């Protein structure tokens, strides 16, 4: 499994690997790519996707689970904490900056096309960098500093899915600070963390109607999921070597996995509104069951297609939005001329249109993972940038 919600593509040989959770991470990235399509389809209009924003919280839980598993006891000084933050920054920021530049070019192109009369303004449309536009110089600066979802705006801007990168990056600071100055070691410490999580979700339920929380209270949402993952990691470490767990049959493990998938799916479909704030126990159970990689569903999620999806999942998550915008524009301008302006209001046509869209997402993600993510990560990690190596963890 990877963190942030995606972890480093290169793992130490001794680092734990959670194959099923890794596969689910790739699958969830595809779900997010489908959720952000603008044309009508039966798939995207289903109850599962209508309530889909709550799926994002699993990414935060995955991240907290793996990072605590990897770093508990390994970050004990400010220098080690700084090295940890550097690794997270090197993992997240290069692709974020690359996609942000694409959105800047796209926004500028919109302005130019309207200026030369090649495009007409839609009703209520505001051009980028104009008064009232979400794509402004101010929001550009916040995106450059990864603060766009830290409550500085009352809207999303540019690459909308990057709000998760914003809040999780700052969650890493709380995580490093905890391990340096208040490392949880006793069960009581984790009980207190659990109480804090309950308070976070309680506060969010008072100020928001559901878990579709992005630009305003997203940091609290992230902390709730992230530290749910931390508690799961603690309990996993406590029970993984117990005889009852180690001797569990494949059939029993498969039954528990199928039941967990069914429970989680039903929660997403039927628990809307305020009920979504009960997501933490559902996510906790999901991670605990699939962390063991023991049953049939785990074997499926560890198959090569899902392993590949996991590999490119961060790129899928970050690049799909611009492709969705382009496909929507083509549907309105290009395909409408041949099939009529309302061709995609037929849900089946919209479902079929998802196929070339996802193919393009996968192709683009393949190349950004290979030529942006990996080399930029290596470049940044190879440079010291003022960080001292003495006493730093080599993880």
Give a topology summary.
Layout: H1 19-35, H2 47-50, H3 56-71, H4 78-115, H5 137-144, H6 163-181, H7 187-207, H8 218-239, H9 243-246, H10 250-270, H11 279-290, H12 296-301, H13 304-311, H14 313-339, H15 347-382
Helix pairs in contact: 1-3, 1-13, 1-14, 3-8, 3-11, 4-6, 4-14, 4-15, 6-8, 7-8, 8-11, 10-11, 14-15
Considering the chains and any ligands shown, give keywords for the structure:
0% strand, disordered C terminus, 15 helices, mainly alpha, 66% helix, 395 residues
Describe the structure.
The chain has one domain. The longest helix is centred in the first third of the chain and has 38 residues. The protein contains 15 helices and no strands. The protein starts with 18 loop residues before the first helix and ends in a 13-residue tail after the last helix. Helices cover 66% and strands 0% of the residues. The chain is mainly α. The N terminus and C terminus are likely disordered. It is globular and about 70 Å long.
Compact summary:
With 395 residues, the chain is mainly alpha-helical. The protein is built from 15 helices and no strands.
